[in-house]
Amino acid sequence: MIVLTIRALGLLVTWVMCAANHRPFDFQAWDGYFYLGMADYGYGGFDPSVTYDLQGEYFPYAPMAFFPGYPLVVRLLGLPFGGHLLAVALTVSLAASIAAGYGVARLAQHAGAGRRGQLAAVALTAGAPMSVVYSLPYPEALLVALAAWTLVAILEQRWILAGLGAAAAGLTSPMAGPLIPVVMAAGLVHLFRARTHRIAAAVAVVVAPLGMLGYLLWVSLASGVPGGYFGITERGWGNRVDFGVTTARWVLDMLTTSREVFPVLTAVVIVAVVIATVRTRMPWPVWLYTAGSVALVVAHSGIIHDRVRLLLSAFPLLIVAAIRLSRRRGRTTAFVVGGVVLAGLWFGAYSLAVWPSSI
C-alpha cells in the first residue's frame, strides 16, 4: 500500500509540474522510447533520426547500449494483450516496484529493523529522488527488485535464487555489474567456510555472471564495433572509465559556480551518497554491492545529469537511514520520512518538467 500510494502521489506531482510548465506528460520520454521500441521490434528498425552518436552521425548500434531484460519481459507479457506495450510496460514497472518494496522490507529486517523501520525503508526507497522512473517504462524498478531479493538470498544462503537473481539483473541493466561479483564472492566464501549447500553455492558462482556476459558477448559479435558494448557507449554517450575525474570536476564546478537548482542538488546528492557509503556499516555483501554501485556511477565520464537516477541502485543506504530514523519518536519518524519522500517526488517531477535531460 505504501508503494502504491507513493507512486500515485508521484504521478500527481509530476502531472502538476508538467502542466505548470506547459509541457506534455509523456510516459515514453527519453529512454522510455528505446525500451518500448525494443519491446516492439527488437534492436532493429529504430528511426535513424534518434540513433546517432555524439557527433550527430547515424549510429545504428546505439540501441544496444540498452540492456534487453526489461523490454523482453514487456514483450512476452504483451503478447496476450494485443501489443498494448505501453500499458504492459507501466504494469511491469509498478509490479516490480511492489516486489522491490517487499525485498527492501526483508533486507531491513535482516539489518535489525522492526516494523516501523521496515515501513520507513520501503517509503524512502519508493520516494527516493528520481524514483519517478519507477512509474515509467524504465528498467530501474525491475533492477532494484532483483538486486534486493538477490541480496536477501545471499544473507539467507539461498544460493540458487541468488545466482538466478544476479543473472537476471545482469540482463536488465549495466548497474547490475556490482551485484554479480558480490554473489560470486559470497558463494566462494561459503564454499571455503561451510560444509552444507556447497553445490548450490558453486552453481550460484557459475550462473551469476551469465546474463551480463552473454549480452556483452552478443553485442560484440552482432555489432562488430571495436570494444563492443563499451565502444558503443563511448561513441554514443562519451562513457569511459576515468576513475571519477570528470564527476569530481563537475561536482566542484556546480557547487562553486552554478546558479541553477537542479545541477546543484544533483551534485549535493552525489557527494552525500559517497560520504554515506564510506561511513555506513552493513553486512559485507550488502556494503560491497552498495559501494560498487556508487563507484560505478562516479567513476565514469559522460552524461552527469542522470547520475541521481543511476544512484537508485544504492538503495541499501536508504534502509540504513530508515533504521536510524525509526529509533526516534513515531511522529518524528513519520514527519522526516514524509518530508524526504515529498522532496524526492518533487525532484523527479522537476527533472521531467523543467530539466528533462536528467533521465
TrEMBL record:
GO molecular function: alpha-1,6-mannosyltransferase activity; GPI mannosyltransferase activity
Membrane topology: Multi-pass membrane protein
Pathway this chain belongs to: Glycolipid biosynthesis; glycosylphosphatidylinositol-anchor biosynthesis
Keywords: Endoplasmic reticulum, Glycosyltransferase, GPI-anchor biosynthesis, Membrane, Signal, Transferase, Transmembrane, Transmembrane helix
Keyword Plastid: no
Residues spanning the signal sequence: 1-19
Designated name of the protein: DUF2029 domain-containing protein
Species in which this protein is naturally found: Amycolatopsis rhizosphaerae
